[in-house]
Amino acid sequence: MEAVDCMVNRLKIGLADTTFARADMAGFAIDEINRKFPDLQKEFVRRTVPGIKDLPVECKLLYERDKCDMVIAFGMVGKEAVDKTCGHEASLGLQWAKLMTNKHIVEVFVHEDEGKNEKDLGSIFEDRARKHAINAVLLATNQQELTKYAGLGLRQGRMHVGKIVRE
Amino acid sequence: MEAVDCMVNRLKIGLADTTFARADMAGFAIDEINRKFPDLQKEFVRRTVPGIKDLPVECKLLYERDKCDMVIAFGMVGKEAVDKTCGHEASLGLQWAKLMTNKHIVEVFVHEDEGKNEKDLGSIFEDRARKHAINAVLLATNQQELTKYAGLGLRQGRMHVGKIVRE
Amino acid sequence: MEAVDCMVNRLKIGLADTTFARADMAGFAIDEINRKFPDLQKEFVRRTVPGIKDLPVECKLLYERDKCDMVIAFGMVGKEAVDKTCGHEASLGLQWAKLMTNKHIVEVFVHEDEGKNEKDLGSIFEDRARKHAINAVLLATNQQELTKYAGLGLRQGRMHVGKIVRE
Amino acid sequence: MEAVDCMVNRLKIGLADTTFARADMAGFAIDEINRKFPDLQKEFVRRTVPGIKDLPVECKLLYERDKCDMVIAFGMVGKEAVDKTCGHEASLGLQWAKLMTNKHIVEVFVHEDEGKNEKDLGSIFEDRARKHAINAVLLATNQQELTKYAGLGLRQGRMHVGKIVRE
Amino acid sequence: MEAVDCMVNRLKIGLADTTFARADMAGFAIDEINRKFPDLQKEFVRRTVPGIKDLPVECKLLYERDKCDMVIAFGMVGKEAVDKTCGHEASLGLQWAKLMTNKHIVEVFVHEDEGKNEKDLGSIFEDRARKHAINAVLLATNQQELTKYAGLGLRQGRMHVGKIVRE
Known about the structure:
By secondary structure, chain A is an alpha/beta fold. Helices cover 43% and strands 20% of the residues of chain A.
């Protein structure tokens, strides 16, 4: 995707991230949004919390207190079983936060064991953060653009897998 | 089931789908509703989101913002353990969305590992989307029709299994 | 339990069931309530939905829209892992529906893999539906009757197991 | 703990239990509260439901309809996998019930497979019910008493395990 | 981190802990806050409950009844499978409590099986309680301080793991 049209000209974007994660995903997202939406007037509100389970209420506050137009949650899920449970709890918290605010929160979670090595993991952090940053802006400004890609097997963090071939 | 009676003559149908899925399930549903309910005046509102965990709030918005009469959620659950967890979180989100709106949301989820191969998976996508599209319209317009099939072991995506034989 | 006293003389009973299940549990329940509570003036409201995950909001509607006095949810959980997850989601949905309405919803769920064979499964469907139908009426009309059986190891679908013997 | 001070002189205690459990835990609790708090004027409201998943809304009603000052939920979780899931659903229901009422509900759950044999299981039922009955009264009347035991590794149903020894 | 700036000069801090845990985590937290924030006027409200599943509503009450500015929940998750489930339920309860109050609750949970031995476990209790106590005060008074550590792989209870190295 090249520079993308969006139908509003001003957007206040909330970014919630953690001290637990091992990459600056919010930084990648800010960079990507600045590149891909040069004509959009952007305001970024960034709030850091300790871990993923602190993200849901922070995201809710970014909407309700800070009056953001779109919020993105960046988190890393550790490799232990207990970390997986934390990730699940955080995701459920985000579900409730969305339903209580009637707003999307784009969840950018990376699992520490997704990468083959540290370098690969690093590129997943960056790719997922950048692609979902675009998704977030489109959801807030030009959702019809996403319908062009409905059912096409898009992926964030790795290569797109594409539509099922039936013959 | 052939062309089916429904007791209202106008229906605004919301369809929420994802860029993650690997088939155009919403397309199958629209086609099926057009075929099976020729006399019904239909309006379709289609909204695409990145993944299944974005569906619950989108469905809630389709009721509350777009004033749809019935909403269908189309999603694909990937093959990894983490995808299964995402599917579970999305389904719980849909439960809350239904209870908060007092409305049905017909969940059309396909698991990427359900099919024996890509062709089989493709036919599950289509069969489930088409059958649940009819369910959705009946729930909204003529629920008594469904009671004729109560306890009969109907299936979407594969063959019906039928009622238990006790002797 | 023979014909049972109940302390009101009129009861509107909601029955939510599915096309997915493989037995007419609501039918057994209606028959049992008619037999065991001959002097009670009963009104039955039956609503069928596709699957178990559609039950919670239907039950909530049976209270809030149809003004039922007691609601029973009948569902079958399939044998696959994905079905177990659906059953869990439906049960959590029923928990919320109860807490949001401040009403009991008697959950009559049968797992397709509970029976040794189809005949056995069929008898579980019937026994559980009939016994829980009585529980539902007692909860709504004469809950003190249930306290006589507190801690006695009652079972629905199979034989009662009884109180723990300490010596 | 001997007879314990409590700072109010009247308490309405709700006890919710089930016909599924295999011991009269509510009975043990009533006996223990009568013994340990002889100077407290007590009123007991006992309500029996079929199984553990019926407890959360019953507890909520004990607060909201019956105006109890403290509510205790007694349940037994069976030995099968499906029973463990039911126990989890009931516990989540209790979490919501507490948060919706802003009240504690002391959960006294025993797993049927906790005991080495029926006699051992019986003593777990009794010990847990008695100790948690005291906890419930203290939570409602003299919570500062509990702080004396903070971090001391207290257990209900078995022996206390004590504080960690660091050297 | 040495003595840390905070931008308010008065803070009412709620501490909820349990009799089940095997260390006085709240005590470590109070000591750490007194050391690291000498110029902050602090008021501590400490409430002890039996176990971790009692923490969520207690934390909610610390905000709503006691009007605390920040609340920390200290709990220990036992080693058995049933304990892990309890920990999960408590964490979900904390998610809802946060979303219902629009406030952070810093969750300081230690798993009894995290330590190599009792001494190691003891040091995890202390390190996690002390570090999260600082996080809690910063969240309430100077959240921008945390953004300096965003994505740096901080850990509580063990050594920090650091940022991913991509080359």
